[in-house]
Predict the 3D structure of the following.
Amino acid sequence: MSHIRTIQDERGTTLMELTVGMAAGAVVFLALTSLIIGSMHGTARVSARIDAAQRARIVLTRLVEELHSACVAPQVAPVQAGSTGTLLSFIHQTGSGVAPVPIKTKVTLTGNTLKKEDFKANGGAAPKWTFEEKEPFSTQQLMTGIAPISPNTSIFTYYGYSEGKLVTISALTAMNEETAGKIVQVNIALTASPRITPVRDVKAPISVTDSVQFRLTPASYNKELASPPCQ
C-alpha cells in the first residue's frame, strides 16, 4: 500500500501585492497624521488665543480703571497735551480727599511693546497741576506683542462733543493743551499676540477694545465752553 503525500500550495505574497498593500497603508498613515497635526494646531491656536486674551484683558482693565479715576476735580482735563494715537497721557488718582493730588501717567506703544510711566505732581493746584516730566517714579512694561487693529495705525482714539454730538478728534500729531481739554471719551483698541505659539498662526492674535467716558451727556452747546469733561 502506497502512501500519498498531500502537496500544499506554498505560494506567498507577490511583489505587486506587497507594493499595493504598503501604498494603501501609507495613505492611511498620512491621513491619520494630517488629522492629528490639524487637531494639534487647532488646540495650539485655542491655547494661544486664550493666553493673548487673558493678558490683554488684564492690561485693558487696569488702564480703564485708572481712566475711570481721571476726573479728580471739576473741569479738570484728564487727557493731557502730547497725547497721540500711540501715546496716552492722562491724570488720575483715587482717595477720600475732596480734590486728591493726581499723578500723571503716560502709556506708550513703542514697536510692539506697551509701556506705562507714572509722574508725580510737583506744583500747581486743581484743576491746573504741574508734573515732573523727565523722571518717572514708576516705569512698567505692560505687555509685548501689541499692535493696532488693522488697518488702523492707532490704539487710542479720542472724542469730543460738537453741537451735542460725539466727534472724533484727530491725534495724528501730538495734541496741544486746548485740544486735549476737549476730550470727553477715549477708546482703546489693540491686537495682542500670545507669548508662545508652537506653530506660525496668523489667527493666534486677538483683538480687544474698551472705552471710557469722562462726560456721559453733552451740555447745551456753547461755542465758548465746548462741553469740557468732568462737569
Observations:
- The chain has two helices and eleven strands.
